Amino acid sequence: MRSLSVQRWFEEIGLGLLGFVALALLTRGSQLDAPGRTAICLYLQIPCAYVGQCIITNKIPNYFVFIGITLILAAIIIPAFRKLRASQQQHQQLQLQQDKQNENVNVNENIPLLSNNDNHKKN
User: Fold this and answer.
1) 76, 40 in Cβ contact below 8 A?
2) Please, are residues 47 and 70 in contact by the beta-carbon 8 Å criterion?
3) Per-residue pLDDT for 123 more than 70?
4) Structural domain includes residue 83
5) Based on CB atoms within 10 Å of each CB, which residue in 1, 46, 93, 120 is the most buried?
6) Is 60 among the domain residues?
7) In whole angstroms, what is the distance from residue 83 CA to residue 81 CA?
8) Considering the domain boundaries, does residue 19 fall inside one?
9) Taking all residues of the chain, what is their mean pLDDT, rounded to a whole number?
10) Is 12 helix (H, G, I), strand (E, B) or coil?
């Protein structure tokens, strides 16, 4: 059995502490932010972990990993685009309603002014 060097021990302890701090910050961030956004961040953690693993080990995983990454990214991107489209449609509808209200206000403002002018001329 081979023992670890002192440097290797410090590296392992440092990685453990960094992992603990990362988990604590992730938990705190999850508590502070909206649940939907937090879920997206947690889902993105999986593909990022695989990419980091590929970079560090210089090995390409099998095609099942890439299928999984693609499915995870699709599960994030498709609902985000749907929500964006629904938000844009809602914004357009609100804008149309505001335009109609502004038109009604302008029409109502002009009528009393004309009638007041007519009354003034009669006197």
Assistant:
1) yes
2) no
3) no
4) yes
5) 46
6) yes
7) 5
8) no
9) 83
10) helix
- 111 is a domain residue: yes
Tell me which H or E stretch contains 119: helix 63-122
Cα dihedral: 62, 63, 65, 67 (round 10)? 180
Full-model pTM: 0.57
Residue 87 structure tokens: 């938000």
Sign of CA pseudo-dihedral 71, 76, 80, 83: positive
Residue whose token pair is 């499915």? 71
Query: Is the separation of the CB atoms in 50 and 69 below 8 Å?
Result: yes
What are 13-67's pLDDT values in tens digits? 999 999 999 989 988 988 888 888 888 888 888 899 898 899 989 998 899 999 9
Q: How many helices (H) does the chain have, and how many strands (E)?
A: 3, 0
Band the pLDDT of 1: cuts 50, 70, 90.
Answer: low
> What is the distance between the alpha carbons of residues 68 and 54, in angstroms, rounded to a whole number?
15
